[in-house]
Amino acid sequence: MRTILVINSKGGAGKTTLTTNLASYYASQKVRTAILDCDPQGSSLQWLRKRPGHLERIHGANATPTNGAAPLNSHRMWIPDNTETLIIDTPAGTKGLPLQNLVRRSDFIVIPVTPSPVDIHATADFVKDLFLVGGARSGHAKIAVVANRVRNSSPGYEALERFLAALNLPFLTRISDSDNYIRAVGSGTGVFEMEEASTLAERKEFMPIFKWLDGQAAVPVSDRHAVKTDNVVRFANTEKIAARRSTRNPQYDGQILLFPELG
Ligand SMILES: Nc1ncnc2c1ncn2[C@@H]1O[C@H](COP(=O)(O)OP(=O)(O)OP(=O)(O)O)[C@@H](O)[C@H]1O
Ligand SMILES: [Mg+2]
């Protein structure tokens, strides 16, 4: 079973949006999928309850302390044995022992971050926690960052670039600020289960995440000249710095991912 942890201690970064869209994609691909919801708000489980019966089933499991069981310690008991992909949604403020437990059990860690200075700052603190307290430094999980709620004119964008380069974390994609995500979460679906013609942009921006999860870098360094966007020139220096750092850090496979072109 592959376990994907969606986490950022910052509230509202897009953890539930990513969790539900990842789950709905895998389910639509006939992958046996489960969500473990560690958030007492239970947003992912609420989403599951709205899920139309004709769509592929996604198993939901509650891992919050309120269900009377020890949280996060033995989540396998709450999910079917034949689960192929488990996606874990986490609450804002996850830290300490729960963070360690989650990191230890995960194969992939996806960190959504919105491009606002306040969120970037909070996320920087969280990533520090993830490595120093959460044990990500010595663990086996692969870690990557996804920008969420990005508008083409997002003013916090340069700060996000600097932040990612400094962390030397793979940056997979930009998820746009789109009403389709709000519609999806309100209807128990994901953008891959909505009308294709009206969700093409959203489907495209999610693909680098699936490629990364499948072991393919979305846009590896060696292919970077293939990415012809206005952004590449602006990002070139950042990438060079990050690429130099990556050679000293085997944890990230020496892969640096570029900002893929939006639409
Ligand atoms: N890409 C997006 N486009 C439009 N709306 C979005 C997008 N991502 C998230 N939202 C909206 O922003 C709000 C917060 O998103 P979400 O619930 O996914 O964040 P979260 O990290 O799970 O929050 P929490 O920390 O409270 O659990 C929700 O109302 C969600 O519908
Ligand atoms: Mg949430």
Characterize the structure shown.
The protein is of the alpha/beta class. The protein has a single domain, classed as Rossmann fold (3-Layer(aba) Sandwich), CATH 3.40.50.300. It is built from 8 helices and 7 strands; from the N terminus they run βαβαββαβαβαβααα. It has helices at residues 15-28, 43-49, 96-105, 117-132, 157-167, 179-186, 200-213, 230-246, and strands at residues 2-6, 33-37, 58-62, 85-89, 108-113, 142-150, 171-176. The chain has a 7-stranded parallel beta sheet, with helices on both faces. α4 (117-132) links the parallel β5 (108-113) and β6. α5 (157-167) packs parallel to α8. The longest helix has 17 residues, at 230-246. The two termini are 33 Å apart. The structure holds adenosine-5'-triphosphate and magnesium ion (MG). The site of adenosine-5'-triphosphate has 19 residues, from α1, β6 and α6.
Number of domains: 1
Taken in chain order, the helices and strands follow as EHEHEEHEHEHEHHH
CATH architecture: 3-Layer(aba) Sandwich
**Rg calc:** 18 Å
Helix content: 25-40%
The amount of beta strand, in percent, is 15-25%
By DSSP (H or I, 4+ residues per run), the number of helices equals 8
Unreliable stretches:
218-263
State the total count of DSSP E strands. Answer: 7
Largest sheet: 7 strands, parallel
Give the bound compounds.
Answer: adenosine-5'-triphosphate, magnesium ion
Which word captures the global form?
globular
Mean pLDDT: 79
Output the structural class.
alpha/beta
Strand order of the largest sheet: 3-2-4-1-5-6-7
Please write the CATH class name.
Alpha Beta
Distance between the termini: 33 Å
CATH topology: Rossmann fold
Can you say what the CATH homologous superfamily is? P-loop containing nucleotide triphosphate hydrolases
